[in-house]
Structures are given as C-alpha cells and as structure tokens.
From TrEMBL:
Keyword annotations from UniProtKB, A to Z: Repeat
Name of the protein described by the UniProt record: ACT domain-containing protein ACR
Ranges where the ACT domain occurs: 110-188
Alphabetized InterPro entries for the sequence: ACR1-12 (IPR040217), ACR2/9/10_N (IPR056816), ACT-like_dom_sf (IPR045865), ACT_ACR9/10_C (IPR056805), ACT_dom (IPR002912)
Origin species: Musa troglodytarum
C-alpha cells in the first residue's frame, strides 16, 4: 500500500476562539472506523459537537466539527492529521519517519520519575505526557514515609519516536520544566516483556462497581447524586419502516464528554455497520443522533430480541460509560474508577488525566495509584485505583465528603 495523499484527512482549524474546527476523513471503509476516529479525537483533547458520516460499504466520508475540551490546550493539528491517517485502511504504515533508527515494532517504555510529593503532582505529570502524545498503559505511583514519590509509567509514543534519544530527552526536559525543583531524577527505558497488570478487587467492591440495577426504565446506581440522576436519561428508538435496507437508530440524550465515542464503541463491539449518520447538539446541552445501520451480513436488525439487546447496551454505555466509587482498603480509603475495554483491547483515552484533575481541584493528595485490568463474566474492564490521603477540608471518613469526591470525579470525566 502507498502512502495516502493529503486529502485523506483534511483539518480546517478555527480562525477565532470558540468556533469549531472541521475534521474531514475520506478513505476506504471498515467496520469500527468511526469508533477509531472518535477515540483519536478524544485522545487529543477534543470534543465532537456535530458530525456527518456516510459510506457505501467500501468508501466512507466523515466530517466532524470539534472544539477543545479546555481553552488552554495547545492542539498539535498536524500530529492529529497524521494519527488519523494512520488508522485509515489505506494508510497502515508509520507516519513519522526516522531513517537512521527506525522502530521495529510498537514498543512499551518505562518512565521512572523520582520527586518530592506535593498536591497535584500526579496530574501535572499526566498533563505533560498527554501534551507529548505519550499514552499511559499502566502506572504505579507510591509515596515513601519521608514524602518522596516514585512514579512508574508504562507508556507508548503516539509519534513512534520514543526509541530516539532526542525524544527521551525532550520528555524529561518537559517534565523537569513543569515540575521544577521537586524532580530528583527522570529516566526512560525500554520495558521488556511488558504485560498489562491485573487488578484484583475484593468481591464486595467488584459487585458494587460492575453491577447496575434497572429501575423506572433506566439503569441506576446508588452513587449518583439526585441532580445527576435527572441528567442521566437516554431515549433509544429503533425503526425499520423508513428504509428498505437499513435500520434507523435514533438517540436522544444529554451531551457529555466522549458520547460519540461510547456510541461508536458499542456499535463496533456489536459488529454493527453505519451507512449514514448525523449528530447534532443544541444550546441546552442535548444531543440527537440519527444512524442508518446494518448488521455485518448487510441485513437490517429486525429480530426483537437483537433490538432489545442493542438498545439496552447503548443506554447502559451512554448512561454509565464509567463507574466511580469509594471503598475501604484496610485502614485506607480507595477511589475506584472503571471503564469497559473495547473488544480490540483498547481502553478509554484520558481517564487517568481527568481523575487526577478532579482530585487536584478538590485539593486531595494521592498516596498511590495503579492501573490494571479486571475481567467479569461479560467483558474486560480497565480499573484505576487511587489511595487517597485524608485531609481537613474533605475528611474521607465523612459520607458526605465521599459523595462529593465521587460526584466531582464523575462530572469531570463526563464533562457535566
């Protein structure tokens, strides 16, 4: 396959603050491509406000209007274009070329950071890694009794350059520039025989974290605050009367961070193909999604059982794409955050970033943190575990403080 031409991915950057930029992808189609595009866009810290998707099963045309999740973010648009080109079926070759030291395959690296502890330290490190397009796959953070922190990040490089000394030096220099005198040492080395860690949860915590009850026609969780329960409503309608060859899927719900990714991820995992789609947001924070879909065999979804399964799965993934709770871990207090892993094995972007941001805003110090995988009877989950330091402003033994932490973390993750 040859390198794709420049018109495979076209990005029109907004000329004024507050206006959306337009991302256009025009390439051969494959099942799940929309999910992959949405994941990359979310990974770069962008939110899709509007979209149009069309395909004839062989070629697709996708247009997304995107805005920054934070006005202060510096988006590397050329890097975004290259990343999107790399996931198009006709562009499965590396897009960053280093002819002197080419990487033999995608590699996992271990970043070791030794520093003095302070509030917000972990989030500041995570923010630098996100800006450098370094993806966190596993992390182990621990604090010694004398207030020193050892951060171990297992990362991959979206630019595929971390095997070079220049890229490693750039990473350490950026971290030292942001963290200042609190950094004692920064090291990067190849992680040999890396395997994703397994998170062993107590049965009681796992049961509460992964099980949901259906009440009043909606999936409910006791951890939701009353106003969140009002927001978390979703209508899913399936109609086979408007097209002879496609099923119309209509969704109405509250707009939230990563919503289109959650919808596309669910359809990809269910082997559902999109022929045409339109996504709109109104000024009141609501989202309307219309999708003409087919099964992979080219047939409509007419089986009532399959319709109910798809509808329930979509509502569950939109209402609770991530689970958040606080549990006791011996004498300590632990914050647990979990999100489903795609069938392809990929996790959700920027979860660690947004959780550490929420805890920083609350003024809560993180004593230790780790990421692992947990498997239930139905799927695999990515689990983030944070041991929290008790504080005077939000005493962790207080149930009201715990509810505030869970609510703040969930709102930050969902952008509500």
């Amino acid at each position: 396959m040859g390198v794709a031409s420049d018109d495979v991915v076209v990005i029109e950057v907004a000329k004024r603050a507050g206006e959306p930029s337009v991302v256009t992808v025009n390439c051969p189609d494959q099942t799940g491509l929309g999910c992959d595009i949405c994941r990359v866009i979310l990974e770069f810290g962008l939110c899709i406000t509007r979209g149009d998707v069309s395909t004839d099963g062989r070629w697709c045309y996708v247009v997304f209007w995107v805005v920054k999740l934070s006005a202060s973010m510096n988006i590397q648009w050329e890097n975004l274009k290259n990343r999107l080109m790399s996931i198009c079926p006709s562009c499965f070759i590396p897009f960053y070329f280093d002819l002197v030291n080419p990487p033999t395959s995608a590699q996992v690296y271990l970043l070791k950071l030794f520093s003095v502890d302070r509030k917000g330290l972990l989030h500041d490190v995570t923010q630098v890694l996100c800006e450098l397009e370094l993806l966190i796959h596993w992390v182990k953070v621990s604090t010694t009794p004398d207030g020193r922190v050892v951060d171990l990040f297992f990362i991959t490089d979206g630019m595929e350059l971390l095997h070079t000394k220049e890229r490693q030096d750039e990473t350490c220099e950026r971290l030292i520039a942001v963290l200042g005198e609190s950094v004692n040492r920064c090291e990067i080395q190849l992680a040999v025989d890396f395997q994703q860690g397994v998170s062993s949860l107590p049965p009681v915590a796992a049961e509460e974290l992964f099980s949901l009850e259906l009440c009043d026609g909606e999936f409910c969780s006791q951890a939701l605050s009353p106003d969140m329960k009002k927001l978390k409503k979703a209508n899913v309608n399936i109609d086979n009367s408007l097209s002879p060859s496609h099923t119309l899927l209509q969704i109405q719900c509250v707009d939230q961070k990563g919503l289109l990714y959650d919808i596309m991820r669910t359809l990809k995992d269910c082997d559902i193909q999109i022929a045409y789609g339109r996504f709109l947001s109104d000024m009141k924070g609501s989202r309307e999604v219309d999708l003409f879909i087919q099964q992979t065999d080219g047939k409509k979804i007419v089986d009532p059982v399959k319709q109910d399964i798809l509808s329930s799965r979509l509502r569950l993934e939109m209402l609770h794409p991530m689970r958040v709770m606080i549990a006791n871990r011996g004498p300590d207090i632990e914050l647990l955050v979990a999100n489903p892993v795609e069938m392809s094995g990929k996790g959700r972007p920027r979860v660690f970033y947004h959780v550490t941001l929420a805890l920083k805003l609350l003024g809560i110090c993180i004593f230790s943190a780790e990421i692992g995988r947990h498997t239930t009877s139905e799927r695999q989950w990515e689990v983030y575990r944070f041991l929290l330091d008790d504080g005077l402003e939000l005493p962790l033994a207080n149930s009201q403080s715990r509810s505030q932490i869970v609510d703040t973390v969930r709102r930050t993750l969902m952008g509500l």
